[in-house]
Amino acid sequence: MPAVSRERLKEKIDRFKTFGRTGRGGISRLSLSPPALEARAEFCRRCRALGLDVTTDDLANIYATRGGTEALPRIVTGSHLDSVVRGGCHDGTLGVLAALEVVETLVGEGVPTRHPLTVMVWTNEEGVRFPPAMMSSGVLAGKFGKEAVLAVRDADGVSFAEALRLSGYQGEERNRLNPRDCLAYLELHIEQGPVLHDAGETVGVVLGVAGMCNYTITVSGQANHAGATPMGKRRDALFAASRLICRLHEELAGLDESLVFTFGRIDCFPNLHTIVPGEVSFSLDARHQDRLVLRRVVEAIKSLPPEIESCAVRHEEAWAREPTAFAPELVEYVRKNADALGYPNRDMYSGAGHDAQYAQDMLPSAMIFVPSINGLSHCEEESTNLDDCWKGANVLLNTILDVDGSGVERFTSEPVA
Q1: Which of 340, 352, 375, 389 lies closest to 206 in space, CA to CA?
Q2: Phi, psi (degrees; rounded to nearest 5) at 201
Q3: pTM above 0.85, yes or no
Q4: Where are the domains positioned within the chain?
């Protein structure tokens, strides 16, 4: 079976590590920041050197296309180049570089494709500088309004609209990804979790992306003097909130072993050591691939008592996301190629969000995972073995060739029951 160049892929990974490097093994490459623009420039330079046609749309998404031998819909592959603060060098970037290496392999070996092949860089996947995450794919999929995201400002007061204008990568809206002109979208990504690494497996065949529910729970008591208020007279909002967190943790842990949930943010008012806390709010983020399990999470939240430890309790949904199932025929191509190449693999769902989930709302899509060493991601210690990167790129290459040679006019977008 055809394979990409391990040496070329390593060179690409090593080169792109230099853009925004922190000096501690990671990168800080926030969307449309100077390091991100340097990475974009290097990507575009390499694409043009391969003879690809490079265009951008109104959200600065980059499309680098190698023409096909027939007038057919294009196959799209890629990921993102932006990172979190002090993040890893492979998150997102590997998907872009593996896709670029696939095209370089095809060009170098003179292998034509019937369909045009587009390597894509999504703008602002992480959403760290400009929230929300997956901003540009969300706009294209109709999840977010363009005017609303253009108005979002970073910590320095710079709007997304201004950053787009200053970037030099803002193109025309007519250049956007057009689902009617696309056959499939494929994305290679690191797992960002420990499952593959712990199992000693090489490839994750991603069935879909877990749905989410995110709630803010607020507990209101009465602020009072920490020394002068008897214990029996206190309405301590922090103590009451801790009781609720323990209750929810115990109840949700018994719902399903695949359910993951996090109490990730807590705000305590007035947050002073001499004052009994008067109000506390905390977040609950829960994720699962089955919407029925998520519904039970919501039921558990809504069944919380209106009062605990003499403090009032209220809850509010912050946001939610339905589970996404990838196109079954594309998933099967990924599985088939991992098997044919002899790479140990498993079916799995992604707990993290990706542009591919919004792409799936527009056209048939699939993802390929490779291991994160020790399950680490969104930190400077994040890493993936070069051999696993290379193997993932080989699965991507052969899956693209299968899609190109399939003769299918349209893949099934809905999962098979």
Answers
A1: 352
A2: -105, 155
A3: yes
A4: 6-210+323-405, 211-320
